[in-house]
Predict the 3D structure of the following.
Amino acid sequence: MSQRKVGVWLVGAWGGVATTVVVGLMALRRNLSDTTGLVTSLPPFQPLDLVEWDQLVIGGHEIRDTDCATEARQLLKASHVFSPELLQSLQADLDAVNANVRPGTLVNVGPTIANLAGSKALAFQGESAGEAVTRLSDDLADFQKRHQLDQVIVVNVSSTEPPVDPAIVELTWEAIEQQLAGKGASGLPASTIYAIAAFRNRFPYVNFTPSIGSDLPALNEYALARKVAHVGRDGKTGETLMKAVLAPMFAARNLKVMSWVGHNIFGNLDGRVLDDPVNKANKVRSKDHLLTEILGYKPQTLVSIEYIESMGDWKTAWDHIHFQGFLGTPMVLQFIWQGCDSLLAAPLVIDLIRLSEREARRGGVGVMSHLASFFKSPMGSDEPAFALQFENLKQWVAKVAAEG
Amino acid sequence: MSQRKVGVWLVGAWGGVATTVVVGLMALRRNLSDTTGLVTSLPPFQPLDLVEWDQLVIGGHEIRDTDCATEARQLLKASHVFSPELLQSLQADLDAVNANVRPGTLVNVGPTIANLAGSKALAFQGESAGEAVTRLSDDLADFQKRHQLDQVIVVNVSSTEPPVDPAIVELTWEAIEQQLAGKGASGLPASTIYAIAAFRNRFPYVNFTPSIGSDLPALNEYALARKVAHVGRDGKTGETLMKAVLAPMFAARNLKVMSWVGHNIFGNLDGRVLDDPVNKANKVRSKDHLLTEILGYKPQTLVSIEYIESMGDWKTAWDHIHFQGFLGTPMVLQFIWQGCDSLLAAPLVIDLIRLSEREARRGGVGVMSHLASFFKSPMGSDEPAFALQFENLKQWVAKVAAEG
Amino acid sequence: MSQRKVGVWLVGAWGGVATTVVVGLMALRRNLSDTTGLVTSLPPFQPLDLVEWDQLVIGGHEIRDTDCATEARQLLKASHVFSPELLQSLQADLDAVNANVRPGTLVNVGPTIANLAGSKALAFQGESAGEAVTRLSDDLADFQKRHQLDQVIVVNVSSTEPPVDPAIVELTWEAIEQQLAGKGASGLPASTIYAIAAFRNRFPYVNFTPSIGSDLPALNEYALARKVAHVGRDGKTGETLMKAVLAPMFAARNLKVMSWVGHNIFGNLDGRVLDDPVNKANKVRSKDHLLTEILGYKPQTLVSIEYIESMGDWKTAWDHIHFQGFLGTPMVLQFIWQGCDSLLAAPLVIDLIRLSEREARRGGVGVMSHLASFFKSPMGSDEPAFALQFENLKQWVAKVAAEG
Amino acid sequence: MSQRKVGVWLVGAWGGVATTVVVGLMALRRNLSDTTGLVTSLPPFQPLDLVEWDQLVIGGHEIRDTDCATEARQLLKASHVFSPELLQSLQADLDAVNANVRPGTLVNVGPTIANLAGSKALAFQGESAGEAVTRLSDDLADFQKRHQLDQVIVVNVSSTEPPVDPAIVELTWEAIEQQLAGKGASGLPASTIYAIAAFRNRFPYVNFTPSIGSDLPALNEYALARKVAHVGRDGKTGETLMKAVLAPMFAARNLKVMSWVGHNIFGNLDGRVLDDPVNKANKVRSKDHLLTEILGYKPQTLVSIEYIESMGDWKTAWDHIHFQGFLGTPMVLQFIWQGCDSLLAAPLVIDLIRLSEREARRGGVGVMSHLASFFKSPMGSDEPAFALQFENLKQWVAKVAAEG
């Protein structure tokens, strides 16, 4: 399939995760990095004929005024990731991406995110939800046309939005269409607007953030109508990955988790946005629910996410798990996770791009529930244990490989 | 099946694990404890008609001069486990067990274990391997007869022996039989002698220790000939359980483990025996091999087990996992496990007794490979990931439940 | 000085710390415990002729309806401290203390503490500050008289109050006296009212809590007028002790602390009171200020205190210190403190009783600034480093010893 | 004193610590680094008129064949320290140092260190101790002469030697002189030979390693005769610094340390040398003794140092301190230190150079016991607590400042 050309459209194109995706893809293309961290580079995925690095063209939406190389150097400086040599080698590649970046929308992103907006995004301040869908959708269509792309995968890697009015889940697609048609106020968050723009172009949409994105009945209705695949939410990169791995152990051993406390500290832009309690609420919810699902009862839980500037992109999580063993004996497991957020997230984003493109190519539509292992709040899946989620993914791989 | 009576024969009957098994079973029988920590009390196991607490009669072999209640109080004092009220309530029950305890054998246990022997076991010092098999086997038969038991499950929970001469794996059962018949020296370790004594009586044998026990081709040959089930080795209770849970996560995410360092400190009798470097070698080997099996490559590993008297039965493990993420970024996961060894082990021993009795009742013979999730070095299984081992167990449960 | 009899008056007499003080003093008196944890049992303090265990008589104020032995058993059950045998041996001693416990005051304790009040304390609900001073003062005088005590030391070990109106520090003693004389509203918190009651009787007052107590210019004015000694605030038992020990190391090595994050979890009554954000604010302030004092600059800091019920009286603190070394190199120190709060606090309370009695005996009046090493926010001292605070104490010891 | 020129002679000139000293001094000279990590840059040291960066000339002895810039780049690559830009800016400075590096001696360095030797050092293989003294001494004299230096400070930052025959401490200086005069075998380790060479030139000698160096009665005799100052041993940079800070806290609070376990992992050249159990013995001894000195009793201790290649120059220490509080309650403090060894050591080496030069300038001779706070096994000091050692240093500072 070397003839196919596939677009990667990053919503939040100059954020830490997107920047790392770009640096990573360029490094892979130029053979300056091995494939460590990429799930789709594991042996079981090799028969799938997944899209290769040199088939991908990158673009995206962004609300801040900056550029790719600047953000990459900032990551290097604040977080001691990448090597300066690598960034030097890729300078031209990174600069080339900037040409494909268009102003994002500020519709319903909340004040903390809106405060980050630069002049280009502010030019569209006050646009209605319907106007935003049209504009963003046109950007996508234009991207496809200019680069003659067979497919475009839209991935949301932007900052976490505030929670939306829960009533939104009651809306039908028809109701949303009416909202978009009118000039009146709409509660649709930006993440959902990007999803609609993607579906309008029949492009798959992947939501790597806790924002609601396409995780609405109405959106799935529209996705099925447009015959596109989608999935989300919230990439499972660190502490929650650990929970999805460790909680099943306690369950399988009938050890009673009395309390599970998790404190997260980090210092990147995401952290600054999450320092707003409203935005944080969305994230904490996403990190907390799976314990009850796995254990079958609700232990006392505490999840904190704190912005500590000196940490840069390094997230340190301390988890204290107080559990009861045989004859009422209290015991403790603690773990300390010291990982670099963007570097953990970026390869998973690349995996999701490759796997979504493959699913779309074979005609898959609707929620890609077989991708649950990638998400904290996986759409279309009620299996919260990581090991079994990964088994499900391997079964999909076997099925697709068998299709030839 | 309320009419069945089942014997539990504990090799190392007054050790920490056995003492906790006895206290636990008595507490369960008198409804003084809930079933936390017992895998077989989880919902999926309920259709299996497993043996209940009041059907079990306990006996065992032991080389030290002490008694059950004394050891239980010692655990309370040194390790702050059990409640004094509980031990008081169970005093008569614990005393009753002592009458079923017979002197163990010192054949090939190595000097560190031999040094623990009391007068009763020393009375048999110098017995040959063949004499030991006969004596121990008679003890088992006598136990069954006196208590009119339908079945006896023999479980090795004694101290870790030194490694044996690797040539032992080449022996056929016929060769071992000749060794046992003669008066000459035999390299057979005590753990294997107990297994032979069990098989001679057609009793299942479970090896909860790193000692070799029945994990020899010749022993399996004999088990098949006697139509008995057996399994081992080395209960997976703490740090290695964590490895079997965490390593698959690194593998599934293609994160490269560069080094995995694990330091274990604890202060029980097991720890004192493992302070002998020869005995320790057996244990470390058992804790170390699975990383390579799960990851598919060998990271630098270090496992230390140190005897720190003040810790009592509490084992603290600190593991430092240094791994490489995307674009060569080094990251770290550390965990600290603070568990009480005997309290973690005892419920698993009870589970293994119930599951072995059930397998024997349905006519199972040979290695019970479906019990791999309980062991560090599971016999008959090449699946090292805990989650998948547990799925295998659940499949066995479904099969047995379907048999009715 | 074996003829002297000294009263110990515990404000919060049935709380965890007070209960442990009582159990500890009784255990020491009956020779059922060694002196581990008691600073005043160290060799340098031996020449001081400090008051001995059998010279002490215990009483106190309390707002809850319970009793000493019940609270002690509750600590045993929830937190696995004390041995049941110890409590059994001391049952009569503990019961005897109850007779000396009088209802505390609810004046300005805030709603969270007021909610804990039992019938005896509620009988005085609505009393004015002046009435409370009189009543509490009479209780103290009566205690002295009934037991023919040479001295009484009043120690505040009650729950943390909400912060007071900062304007209170502007008041003169005369202004406070007028408040007490009138029937009108007064902002004086209960902790200060107890201090006034103590001073009125010329009894030393020790404030082991973050509440304001005698830490007011007006109170010191009154203490000097009454010629009594006093000191506080907030016993330095765990995480903050560690800060007072570690921060000077970073300062002495010119290592730049970029951020210091401390998360505390625990599950005792104190924790439940601190779960009220208003009360917590007082505590967090007390734990946080010393870093700036020691380092000479303000790193980013975060202190959280969370109520996790399963922890009982065990406080676990995780501190993450992110510091910069030579050539801008970021490094990390983390510590995990797993201590039992009441068991850490109680011996220090006993030390403070003995040292305050000694200072009073030698005629000391006003703030006992040489006791700074015992407090998070030491009155009368601007030395925040623990090691130097302790040197100051040793200098006082040498001086007093020289006085003979 | 801007006219003085001072030589810095690094024994182990291309090792990690020396390389960092060189990079650091050059960065300071060119104003490319602030003074974080330098004790002598703290305010109290400012009146001392210490030697400035641009007054220092660097040379040294080394047994390996490499060069300064190569080693610096290796540190950057393996340990993510320094910035590439910094090394680029300093390339010429680093290259200039190489010209002043002379072949070190292999006399009694033990096989593990000898295996590291390159062709230049091997050219002197088999030289006697006396020949070595003469050769090394001439190198120093030549260095002084070529650069017209007012003073030269010799600092041992080479790999840890195996322990020496304890009988060596019985030798008089006369006996050593006879050894040096003869051609016969001598047990004098290389670290001592360098010290003698320094003293012969009347140059101060600082031993930053656990090797014996000048810590012999005979050597001090010689130092006094030559009127030179010296000090050692073993820079206190990480885990042992923590012990010297934390153990006094346990002592001051009369908390009984039952066991103190410390596991250290790291992956630099020092680690590879310490992987030889003989060399490691010297280091472990140096890290272990101070607990007994501070606590006044010997808790069970365990110190391990393990070479884990992936760690590079980053040393992670996990310490588990099991202590007993009031009423026999066991509690735990754990800390995890993640520091970069060379970056912690280098500024202290620079401090010691400045402070030794200052002491020599004011006529100090013999052991500089006021520098104890810098060493794990400080010569001439019986104060093991860090805070008090630092007070001693500040007193010396005050005294010298008062001298004007």
Observations:
- The first strand of chain D starts at residue 6 and ends at 11.
- Residues 341-361 of chain D form the longest helix (21 residues).
- Chain D touches chain C through 55 residues (CB under 8 Å).
